């Protein structure tokens, strides 16, 4: 996995970050919560931090985070998520020993499970990937309460950006707009011909995959691949938004990821040192355990429980319940 950073950074350097047509929201000057005061967190939450710079040494708890959000002392929230937020939807984590996809995937033609996400193997034999993709057909899985909590964060105008490593697209399905998302490992939202690089309609891709055929380009008959980032491919251009998002964030939520994959893992270090980082995961791994900061909040154990606890502390439980009911109703309507 360490090699991932090597193939990402040259691509990053080669891109023009400030190209035309890009989203300009992140070009705004960083805004300090509380506005009138130079200390990062202020009015209304002084009881938590006391006064002056030394207060930043104080240990924070989930309750404090909830109060910061309620007081709108945190309103530029960056969220990073991984496979752990989708396991409650029934999507197996890739890496869990025993139950994870890499442990369970067996296909006669595949030398080792990771091979199905390697470009060279895909070009040699796309069938195993297509078998796997069939499982990911839109509608096979539904967003869960964690996705809807993030949607609520967006509805309340608090979500600066959601960085996801997941390729299941459930963040979109939950109603979070694409402009708020960085799908760092790509998605099934679009597909491209591996030969002529033309975009290919997703309906064609799914029609082929669901019919156990290899999707091919209508123009050159080359194999069509969804824009999921394989090993050996550059991350999507939108990933560059991190350059502006992280330094201007005033809260970082990290949910359901052990931060083992670069460059995603290093992003957790990119927020200012005064910015609280909330880490919710089954177990502590990655930068937050080996390079902890004084304002980190660790909430380990079942992720749904942890998110529900925060939602409760925020006083959003009823609102979230309503949102889930409304959205689930919409999705069921589409199935009919
Ligand atoms: Zn083509």
Word description of this protein:
This protein folds into two domains: 59-90 and 143-185 and 238-335, Rossmann fold (3-Layer(aba) Sandwich), CATH 3.40.50; 92-140 and 186-228, 2-Layer Sandwich (SIR2/SIRT2 'Small Domain'), CATH 3.30.1600.10. It contains 14 helices and nine strands. Strands 3-2-1-7-8-9 form a six-stranded parallel β-sheet, covered by helices on one side. Strands 5-4-6 form a three-stranded antiparallel β-sheet. It has 336 residues and is α/β, with parallel strands linked by helices. The radius of gyration is 21 Å and the shape is globular. Strand 2, helix 8 and strand 3 form a beta-alpha-beta unit. Helix 3 packs across helix 13 and helix 7 (145-155) crosses helix 14 (317-335). The protein binds zinc ion. Residues 193, 195-196, 198, 217, 219-220, 222 line the site of zinc ion (ZN). Zinc ion is lined by residues 193, 195-196, 198, 217, 219-220, 222.
| CATH class identity of the largest domain | Alpha Beta
Helical percent range?
25-40%
Q: Main β-sheet, in a few words?
A: 6 strands, parallel
Radius of gyration: 21 Å
Task: Spell out the blueprint of helices and strands.
Elements: H1 3-14, H2 46-49, H3 62-70, E1 77-81, H4 101-104, H5 119-124, H6 127-135, H7 145-155, E2 159-164, H8 170-173, E3 181-183, E4 186-193, E5 199-200, H9 202-210, E6 224-228, H10 242-248, E7 251-255, H11 264-267, E8 277-281, H12 287-290, E9 296-300, H13 303-314, H14 317-335
The chain binds zinc ion.
């Amino acid at each position: 996995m360490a090699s991932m950073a090597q193939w990402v950074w040259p691509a990053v350097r080669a891109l023009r970050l400030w190209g035309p047509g890009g989203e300009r929201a992140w070009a705004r000057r960083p805004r300090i919560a509380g506005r009138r005061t130079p200390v990062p967190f202020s009015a209304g939450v002084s009881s938590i931090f006391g006064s002056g710079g030394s207060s930043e040494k104080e240990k924070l708890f989930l309750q404090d985070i909830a109060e910061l959000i309620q007081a709108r002392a945190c309103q530029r929230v960056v969220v990073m998520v991984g496979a752990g937020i989708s396991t409650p939807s029934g999507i197996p984590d890739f890496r869990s020993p025993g139950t994870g996809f890499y442990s369970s995937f067996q296909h006669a033609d595949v030398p080792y499970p990771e091979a199905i996400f390697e470009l060279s193997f895909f070009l040699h034999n796309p069938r195993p990937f297509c078998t796997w993709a069939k499982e990911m057909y839109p509608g096979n899985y539904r967003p869960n309460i964690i996705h809807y909590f993030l949607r609520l964060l967006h509805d309340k105008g608090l979500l600066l950006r959601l960085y996801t490593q997941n390729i299941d697209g459930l963040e979109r399905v939950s109603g979070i707009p694409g402009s708020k998302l960085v799908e760092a490992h790509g998605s099934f939202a679009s597909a491209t011909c591996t030969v002529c690089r033309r975009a290919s309609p997703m309906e064609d891709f799914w029609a082929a995959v669901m019919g156990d055929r290899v999707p091919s380009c209508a123009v050159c008959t080359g194999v069509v691949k969804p824009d999921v980032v394989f090993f050996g491919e550059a991350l999507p251009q939108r990933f560059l938004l991190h350059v502006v998002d992280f330094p201007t964030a005033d809260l970082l939520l990290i949910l359901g990821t052990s931060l083992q994959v670069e460059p995603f893992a290093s992003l957790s270090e990119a927020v200012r040192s005064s910015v609280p980082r909330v880490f919710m995961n089954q177990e502590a791994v990655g930068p937050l355990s080996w390079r902890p900061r004084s304002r980190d909040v660790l909430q380990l154990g079942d992720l749904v429980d942890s998110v529900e606890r925060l939602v409760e502390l925020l006083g959003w439980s009823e609102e979230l319940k309503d949102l889930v009911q409304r959205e689930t109703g919409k999705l069921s309507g589409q199935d009919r």
